[in-house]
Amino acid sequence: MSETPRPTARADRPEPAGCGAPHVTLAAPRRPRLVFLYPGPAAAGAGMGRTPYDAEPAVRAEVDAALAALPGHLDDRVRAALLGPPGRVVPPDCAAPALFVLQYALTRLLVAAGLAPDTVLGYGVGEVTAACVAGVLDPADALHLAVAYGRLSADLPPTATMTVGLSAVDAARQLPPEVRLVAVDTPESCVVAGPGPELRRWERTLAQLYVTCHRPAVPVAAYPDDVPSRLGPVAAALTATTPRPPRLRWLSTVSGRPVSADEAVDREHWLRLPGRPVRFAEAAGQLADRDVAVEVGPGSTLTALLRHVTPDLPTLSVLSPRPEGGPTDPRRHPDPVAAVRALLADPASRRDRPHPPDHTRAGTSRPGRRK
């Protein structure tokens, strides 16, 4: 797998010295800062990479190279997750590597066109792609780490998850004993996990308080209390990995803030990722007025969440979900490069729309009303 090219800085040519009246230079308008968002396994769906694979030769080359680097038992299964018929469930051990392969290939396509990000942010194991694009992980090491997280997910006991229309603070005050917080998606919604019967009882209690709950189409990974004893595959993948300081701004959903150089080179970061709540709302809250966000992956999971965190931030999803069972037609494939260039040229055209986002794939609910 080839490395993502580094963003290049261009020095402005100095103005010639004047010999008369003072020279007045008008400041050029500041360009938007490009943020790449990388979703986690909740966005995964069978066939998610078929359309860009067929339509973009550069994506096809990157995907083929990455699949060839996978262990033999995973090659065909990850290929099926990326390119197979839609409607099938993506196995847990395939979701993380399949997402990384697709996200990295799309990133390479954009960067090769001169559209390198200024900031990266990944949801859950999407953090692996973010770290790779930031230059912290080599592509090969990132792929092996994604495979290790996939193995970890496959080893987890089944559990139920639910999105609750409460802030994380309000939810924590009333969590049942066996239910735990697993993600803070927006200031007014969070994701919890626990035994199915316990979640159903709490859901009925919350309904009496007019708090909206929602079961995600794809459950968010919920790690048990004994997760340290299950980290063998991740620790093994880290032994041959040498993290480096980030070359660009990397917002972590483990801490909810930018990753420092010291934190980036600490292998323990990747052992802390499982079992910590995903702090997407805090990380997304670090984005500012000049930022424009592009979801580099399948669907619009994170752009839907972002509308609740920073409603005025221009957003774009480079891949729209394919209709269930619908045919793949490269002629109808939206050009990611053209779409991102249009976003940068006119960010105001991509600000929040009055229509509600699709919460089915985002796995979020509308903030509920409480008495």
Explain this structure.
Helix 2 (57-68) crosses helix 4 and helix 6 runs antiparallel to helix 9. This protein has a 5-stranded parallel sheet with strand order 7-2-1-8-9, sandwiched between helices. Strands 4-5-3-6 form a 4-stranded antiparallel sheet. The protein has 15 helices and 9 strands. Mean pLDDT is 83; it is low at 7-22, 322-332 and 352-371. Helices cover 37% and strands 12% of the residues. The protein is globular.
Characteristics:
four-stranded antiparallel sheet, 371 residues, alpha/beta, single chain, 15 helices, 9 strands, five-stranded parallel sheet
> Based on CA inertia axes, which overall geometry fits?
globular
Low-confidence stretches: 7-22, 322-332, 352-371
Mean pLDDT: 83
The proportion of strand residues reads 5-15%
What would a concise description of this structure say?
This protein is α/β, with parallel strands linked by helices and 371 residues long. Helix content is 37%, strand content 12%.
Write the layout of secondary structure elements.
Elements: E1 33-38, H1 50-55, H2 57-68, H3 72-83, H4 92-112, E2 119-122, H5 126-133, H6 139-154, E3 160-164, H7 168-173, E4 180-186, E5 189-194, H8 196-208, E6 213-214, H9 232-238, E7 249-251, H10 261-264, H11 268-272, H12 280-284, E8 291-298, H13 301-309, E9 315-319, H14 336-345, H15 359-362
Parallel strand pairs: 1-2, 1-8, 2-7, 8-9
Antiparallel strand pairs: 3-5, 3-6, 4-5
